[in-house]
Amino acid sequence: MSQSTFDEDDLFGEAAAEMRSEVESHLADARAALPGADAVWEVEADNALGALNSLKSALDTGDAADHLRAAKKQYVMGERADAFEDADDLEAEIEEMEELLEDIEDAHEDVSDLAGTLPALRSALQDAEGEEDDADEDE
């Protein structure tokens, strides 16, 4: 039977290493859930509304926010417990991921707004064309 060590410093070191590993794992999962660069750049559609809807779907971040939240929770716990010897890289990566996720969500909202506006705009333009045709016929 192997002898286990229950020294508090050793246990704390193990726990800190596990926390760091969890933060890194959640960050990797968040990155994996983000849309691919080609997915938001190359869309196939027959018209502008189709392109916007395709882009809106491509900008879906899936579970990235949940993974980022989990990473941040583990990071905050580790920071407050002073468990990390050097966590500047984790902090920087979390901040970068937050900014990227916010940019993607902003773009998704912009595309959604435009996709919602475009049909009404098209209808108004068709009505205007119809009124112009009616005016031409009256002359």
From TrEMBL:
<feature type="region of interest" description="Disordered">
    <location>
        <begin position="115"/>
        <end position="139"/>
    </location>
</feature>
<dbReference type="InterPro" id="IPR043808">
    <property type="entry name" value="DUF5790"/>
</dbReference>
<protein>
    <submittedName>
        <fullName>DUF5790 family protein</fullName>
    </submittedName>
</protein>
<feature type="compositionally biased region" description="Acidic residues">
    <location>
        <begin position="128"/>
        <end position="139"/>
    </location>
</feature>
<dbReference type="Pfam" id="PF19103">
    <property type="entry name" value="DUF5790"/>
</dbReference>
